[in-house]
Write a structure and sequence with these properties.
It is a single chain. Helix 2 packs across helix 3. The longest helix is centred in the middle third of the chain and has 22 residues. By secondary structure, the chain is an alpha+beta fold. It is 31% helix and 18% strand. The protein has a 5-stranded antiparallel beta sheet. The structure holds guanosine-5'-monophosphate.
Length: 141
């Protein structure tokens, strides 16, 4: 499948559609998942075009992983979950639904369990409040 430059995350990176931003640098962007599987679920993307881990330049993958680690640490500090899942899907058969490389940071609160993948939208207010907690944790690093 050829990379679609109009996929939703490419449009978010270009600022054409809104997202609740958590962190940005020259190579990567982190923002809240619109249909979070748990409180604090965030996504990290490299800014370059690439459908998945297999076809994205390694230096861009490395930049995205560095940001993923930062966001995971900040989410741990902000929400205090006992665990965190980092996921990344390659291809529809593996569960990928948006075809621009991204990593999920999903805090896991054992008693609550995880909501289903990409099912229920959460209000912008809730996403903004959770993003503010992660941003504050990043500032406190
Ligand atoms: P995957 O491709 O790894 O299956 O997941 C794509 C993720 O993107 C899902 O967790 C879904 O909830 C999220 N998502 C889909 N559309 C949007 C959107 O427009 N904005 C944001 N922030 N997240 C989205």
């Amino acid at each position: 499948m050829a990379y679609d430059p109009n996929n939703i995350f490419a449009r978010i990176v270009r600022g054409e559609i809104p997202c609740v931003r958590v962190y940005e640098d020259a190579d990567t962007l982190a923002f809240m998942d619109l249909m979070p599987q748990s409180e604090g679920h965030a996504l990290i993307v490299p800014k370059v075009a690439g459908e998945n881990l297999l076809d994205t330049p390694p230096e861009s993958v490395a930049a995205a992983i560095r940001t993923t680690q930062r966001i995971a640490r900040a989410a741990k500090a902000a929400f205090g979950p006992p665990g965190l899942i980092i996921t990344q899907f390659n291809g529809p058969a593996a569960g990928q639904t948006v075809f621009h490389l991204h990593f999920h940071v999903i805090p896991v609160y054992t008693e609550a369990g995880l909501r289903l993948h990409a099912r229920e939208k959460v209000s912008a207010d809730v996403l903004e409040a959770n993003a503010a907690r992660i941003r504050a944790a990043l500032l406190a690093e």
